[in-house]
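Problem: given the chain below (307 residues), write out its structure.
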Amino acid sequence: MSIFLNSSSRVIVQGMTGAQGRLHTTRMLGAGTQVVGGVNPRKAGTSVDFDVAPVGPGAEDRPAGTVAVPVYGSVAEARDATGADVSVIFVPPAHAKGAVIEAVDAGIPLVVIITEGIPVADTAEFFAHAQDNGVRLIGPNCPGIISPGQSNVGITPANITGPGRLGLVSKSGTLTYQMMYELSDIGFTTCIGIGGDPIIGTTHIDALRAFQDDPDTDLIVMIGEIGGDAEERAAAFIKEHVTKPVVGYVAGFTAPEGKTMGHAGAIVSGSSGTAEAKKVALEAAGVRVGKTPSETARLARELLLGA
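Solution.
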């Protein structure tokens, strides 16, 4: 099994005809994702050809070749024509709010927002709109979500790891990739990069709850970073509701106070949001916290395999 995304997911790409949209649609198709359409009002009725080379788990069973993906004039039109239930957004920041609201209004249940640099006020507006309509958002400013061997929505490389028994939720894209690589011998049910903006659609707690309920996930890896109190809130949730083992890593132990580090939400103010405070909270909830990503991977391996 997996969470939020599986082999039956039917994906449309908002911004598919742009440079980044084309690049990553090619990669998603190569991973076996069911990309069923793109959205561009100016190019409705056309199609885009993608030269697909299968990669990742199951690549040997998927043919290489050209895949033509149709372009629709709106998300609603694409959903009606294809039965899409996921949209991934590669749209510039100035237009991202409109793209998300369009996907929500079209009734797409899962919207993955890759775009970086969206104004927080815009995110607050479309996040509230999504909540009001029962739509799950992942992101913004994130690598997306991958259920290895099933589907890959976003920019995560599909050939890092295969399916397995771990669940991964991370604020950091690059640390998502590193952890997938470090634990590739075990594999993952689903890996989610939730993004590091001050407002995000899916939180650590959302992913922890889903992994706890997923019978195929035996251990959860959680990566946080400085800034805010999301990790402290996740620790409280783990203590009360998670019975599966959790290992964690918090990026930013050496970050200087008051300086934004990498993500808009990764900023320490006084004693609030420090890596040490987050580590203490997580360990108090029974989470094994590594000092480095590699140590975190070793802890996960020890807990799961006893080695």
